[in-house]
Amino acid sequence: MDGIHNIEAASPNAMMLDQPEEEHISIVEPNTTDPEDVAEINADSAVPPRPLVTDYEAMRDLILPPLQEEPPILEDKVSTWEIQGFRAMNKKERGPVFQAGGYPWRILLFPHGNNSSDQCSIYLEHGYEPNDVPENWSCCVQFSLVLWNPNDPSIWFHHTAHHRFTKEESDWGFTRFLEARKMFNVAWENSNRPIVENDAANITAFVRVVEDETGVLWHNFNHYDSKKETGYVGLKNQGATCYLNSLLQSLYFTNAFRKAIYGIPTQQNESMDDSAYTLQRLFYQLQTSPVAVSTNELTKSFGWEQKHIFEQQDVQELSRKLMEQMENKMKGTESERVLPQMFSGEVKTYISCVNVPYESSRTEEFWDIQLNVSGQKNLLDSFQDYIQVERLEGQNQYAAGDDYGNQDADKGVIFLRFPDVLHLQLKRFEYDMMRDLMLKINDRYEFPEEFDASQFLSKDVDRSESWEYQLHGVLVHSGDLNAGHYYAFMKPEKEGWWYKYDDDKVTKATRREVLEENFGGPYKTNRGQLVQKKPEAMRPNSAYMLVYIRKSRLDKILCPVTAADAPAHLQRRFEEEHAAREAKRKEREEQHLYLGVKAITEVTFQAHGGTDLANFEATSDEPGAPRYYRFLRTAPVQEVVNWVANDLGLSPNRVRLWAMVNRQNKTIRPDQPVMDFTQTVEEAYSRATAHRDPALRVWVEVAEEVNADGVAVWPAYPGLPNGAVVKNDLILLFLKWFDVEAQCLKGVGHVYVSKEKKVEELFPIIMKKMGWEKLGSDEKLMLWEEIKPNMIDPLKSKITLKSAELQDGDIICFQRVTPEKKSRLGHGDKQSSDETAKSGDRYEDAREYYDFLLNKRTVSFRAHPSKCDGELYPAFDMVLNTKINYDKLCEKVGEKLGVDPTHFRFYTVNASSGNPRTHVKRGNQSLFSILSPPGYGPLNMNQMNNALYFEVLDMSLTELESKKTIKLTWVSEGISKEEQVDVLVAKNGQLEDLIESLVRKLKIPSEEEAGRIRVYETSNHKFYRELERSYPVISINDYTTVIAERVPAEDADVTRDEQNQYISCFHFQNEPSRGHGIPFKFLVKAGERFADTKRRLEARTGIKGKSFEKIKFAVVRRANFSRPQYLNDDDILWEVAQNSDDSLGLDHPDRSRTLRNGAGDLFLKG
Q1: Contact in structure between 1111 and 1147 (CB atoms under 8 Å)
Q2: CA pair distance 994, 981, nearest whole angstrom
Q3: What single DSSP character describes residue 54?
Q4: For the chain: N or C, fewer Cβ within 10 A?
Q5: Is 1120 helix (H, G, I), strand (E, B) or coil?
């Protein structure tokens, strides 16, 4: 190659920019190229001669190779800059301006290097003056810069690149164009002269301006606006939902489908759990939103959790389930038949005798067609393969009944009707038997823009209307089976542009991008006779789903859909939501102008049952929550007083605000009244020292008396006529009552008391406040000071308030006690934490109750979803002291549920999924350590600290630990009914013991009463082995699925020697590798026609009616696992399944929602 491989095409402005175009040139510069990359020359051809730089045509063919995007060429231009005194040039030089494509260009040269003194740097830049560049100007250019000896044009060196030049990215080229040591005084390779001779050199720019057909050729997509550029918006990717996005865009641009979805009646149920409503919302937003739309509402209505968002699902299955869901939503409406008419067709499976008039056939409805890619060149070949006729002759003759006997026959399928919108699923993923895994097929596979489908229809089908189809959409997968990306190409209108929908980005697309680039196969190689040693590079992207529309129905399917077609209630809802968002936006923008005020009133204090005067973090609907107001920061405090007074129904003259402050002990108490009503709210806020709340916190005092002029009389901090504030000896105290009988704290109110008074002088004040005439003869009042939540100190009655160090804002808690209780409580003595924790639900002592408040937690208890009956034991919440131990927790829950406390097992809860985690080991740990385990790590961080699952055991936990739990699936009614059950068996038991325990657990008839029970293991939905009755329980594999069933009546008399008459059966969907359901053993009878076998299978499986009729049966051989042999009614299963490892496959959709290998099957709930 004529350049250095690692030279970067770049701008001199040190930006993140493109790599240079690789050049496939037959001449390779020595010492710079990896030998593995050298191309071989065909033996029959000679090495082409190296052209002279002055031979522009030859040079262009050599140094400007075809571009992968194949854009149309607008103009080729060559310009040469002749340089004298190369080494004497300035650090930065520009060549003469020349025109190409109607725009000015020039060469930018750093002769001594750009940030690299050992290199020469050369770039191409546009020739506009800085202020003359047109707004939104861009030009796509492929160019090559050639440095050459002016005395010998055979001595040259070049680099090639392509770039989208814009006002922001004005230059592009090569910072490391050529090492300076190779330029001067050193003979250039295969010559005796240097490339720069006598300090002179020429630089020639070969410039090829190409057409930017789509407006995004080589675009970096910075500040790209899909709506502005295309008129359409994309869908946001939630994690791995690109497959969903591509399907949704395909359905959205099937306009008749969109209109049908709008027609689903949702006005009576605008629920975000309704997938029809959320799909309507999604389509409406795609139609009206200026930015990419989120699919969160839709996936939530499907019932998908976070884990489903990061699992890529099968698009065909998703499409079918979504169609089925919407079809159900349309039942009973005018649109009931719209979807089947639009998307469903009919195909006939037949066996037709060649020589006699006898045919067996079955007609089925289809919503999409799966076509083979492997071994096929194009779409039409796949259709021919699909309807290929197999001749049954010789030993394989068809049994045509008693009238005709065995006959030569043709077996195949033929289409009876194609839908208006034809969904074709290309089987790009197939099972590789040798590797035992699914692989992506990257072979080249072509599909046309138009094709005539009539050639694949039965000859009896009406052809009066054309069956020609036009390509409408191409859904693409890029990557391999394990990691890939999905996007779609759609043609929204009958005539017009194609567009690429790549998640949130929408761009115009060329016909080549839609077709050629998605055929798959190897990349195109450059022309010439070079043969690469390395294997061909395969395209990672290829079409996997095609959408065709019948040409005669294009106007019907692509009918105009406007915003007015959306349901009126939907439009109103979005207008309301838009107005709400605008109001919130305005509120956020103006938020800095406002300040919140949280006010404690007498009413909120009385409703507050916790520590301090209020919980400032409480929400407005909680009892005791402070009232919240919002004022301009510049508003005077008087305005706050007026507003609060009006809210309380009082005169502003009777209201005074006290500023709340954070004390050093982390409590929040009133400090002093706000006396200056002219100051602003912000000034009052800033004067409240050490505040941690973004709002001004106040206590609202209401005057109990006024003077003759209606002015409030305040006991403390009265304002004098001259504006001065005087502090007297009265202190403000708040009173709380611990109601022993009700087991709660109640705010009583506030009092002013002289600090010189004794504590016992508070007694009559409290009696009056409470309306108590007198205490009982054996009762006393006990007083405590609430210093902080974990410091509740008793007050001695004989000391003064001053000696007790009481001050404004302190809280006194009181309670009534009898002498016996007082003696038992030990007034003045502190209980140990253990004693507090051991106490029951009733607290006799305020300090005990405060300790409970400090450690209480509301814990949610839920029955284990798979191990406990949620209907028998409904969920409940309990307020518990986190100091209690495991046994005490069992007692509390047992008392609540009426269950023996020894029969509980608890499970912690995963914070992300809400699912049960491991069970809690019994021990002496506290509830706090159970909910919040000590230590710091991912496991502990991902645990909910306020919830537990519980399991009610059939025995004590101690007995349980001596047994083994067998996870078993009990199947009944054939295999149509499954019941998951955990069976406990002694670890030294046998299978017999397991069966006996199962009978007791399920309360089903014993084997003597209803017949023998057999137990077998399955793996990956395939039958593995039947277990012997004496099999030890301890050896049952934990990694297989254990199934138990009642032995069918027809199997009851089969002896051990006749076991080879059984065939293993399993369920799959489309591909045998996609197993599901419960596998089973089935008795095969010699000479039985499969029509009769199916009747037995219906009884054996318990699948009835239409569900059974939709099942297709196939013999699946291990040697050819990916190509099942489907059976007809006249086949003999005994003869078709001749090998011991042959299986009978039941091909039908998987409708289960069970968890497999930790990942959920695709399901749509809404």
Answers
A1: yes
A2: 12
A3: T
A4: N
A5: helix
CA distances (Å), 471 to each of 256, 426, 475, 489, 547, in order? 16, 14, 11, 10, 6
Condensed to tens digits (0 to 9), the pLDDT of residues 870-887 reads 899 999 999 999 999 999
Mode of pairing for the β-strands spanning 594-600 and 429-432: unpaired
Residue 44, C-beta contacts closer than 8 angstroms, at least 6 positions apart? none
Say if residue 8's pLDDT is above 80. Answer: no
Give 1165's pLDDT tier (boundaries 50, 70, 90). low
Query: For the segment 1104-1144, what is each residue's pLDDT rounded down to a tens digit?
Result: 887 888 899 999 987 655 578 899 988 999 988 888 889 99
Say which residue the tokens 């369920």 belong to: 1067
Structure tokens at 587: 């509120």
Tally the C-alpha atoms within 13 A of residue 990's C-alpha that lie toward its C-beta: 6
Supply the pLDDT for residue 617. Answer: 87
pLDDT tens digits, one per residue of 843-857: 888 999 999 999 989
Averaged pLDDT, 612-637: 90
Residue 732, classed as helix, strand or coil, is strand
Rg of the chain over Cα atoms, rounded to whole angstroms, equals 42
665-719 per-position pLDDT tens digit: 889 999 889 988 899 999 999 887 656 778 999 999 999 888 888 888 888 888 6
* Cα angle 680, 686, 692; round to 5: 130
Over the stretch 1032-1048, which tens digit does the pLDDT of each residue have? Answer: 988 888 888 999 999 99
Structure confidence at residue 253 (pLDDT): 94
pTM here is 0.65
The answer to whether 246 and 253 have CB atoms below 8 angstroms apart is no
Q: How are beta strands 977-986 and 963-972 bridged, if at all? A: antiparallel
Pairing of strands 93-94, 345-353: unpaired
Consecutive H or E run containing 672: strand 668-673
CB count, 10 Å around CB of 879? 10
Rounded to whole angstroms, how far apart are CA atoms 715 and 722? Answer: 18
Q: Are 64 and 159 in contact (CB under 8 A)?
A: no
Residue in the structure block whose two tokens are 């069976």: 983
Alpha carbon 476 to its chain's center: 21
Catalogue the active-site residues: 242, 485
Q: Do residues 945 and 931 touch, judged by C-beta distance below 8 A?
A: yes
Residues 6+ apart with CB under 8 A from 701: 655, 656, 657, 658, 673, 714, 750
For the chain, the maximum distance between any two Cα atoms, rounded to a whole number of angstroms, is: 127
Rounded CA-CA distance 986/149 in Å is 93
Residue type at 731 in one-letter notation: I
Distance CA 520, CA 442 (A): 6
Q: Sort residue 641 into left (φ over 0), alpha (ψ -120 to 50) or beta.
A: alpha
Alpha-carbon span 174 to 160, nearest angstrom = 9
CA nearest neighbour of 164 among 11, 60, 8, 7: 11
Give residue-wise pLDDT tens across range 485-528. Answer: 999 999 999 999 999 999 999 999 999 999 999 999 888 765 43
Output 111-117 pairs: Cβ under 8 A, ≥24 positions apart.
111/86, 111/87, 112/180, 113/175, 113/180, 114/12, 114/175, 115/14, 115/175, 116/175, 116/176, 117/180
Token digits of residue 845: 């002592």
Torsional sign, CA 586, 589, 593, 597: positive
* pLDDT at res. 940: 60
- Closest Cα partner for 370 from 442, 320, 443? 320
Q: 139 by DSSP, 3-state: which?
A: strand
Residue 5 has a pLDDT of: 33
3-state DSSP helix/strand/coil percent for the chain, to nearest 5? 25, 35, 40
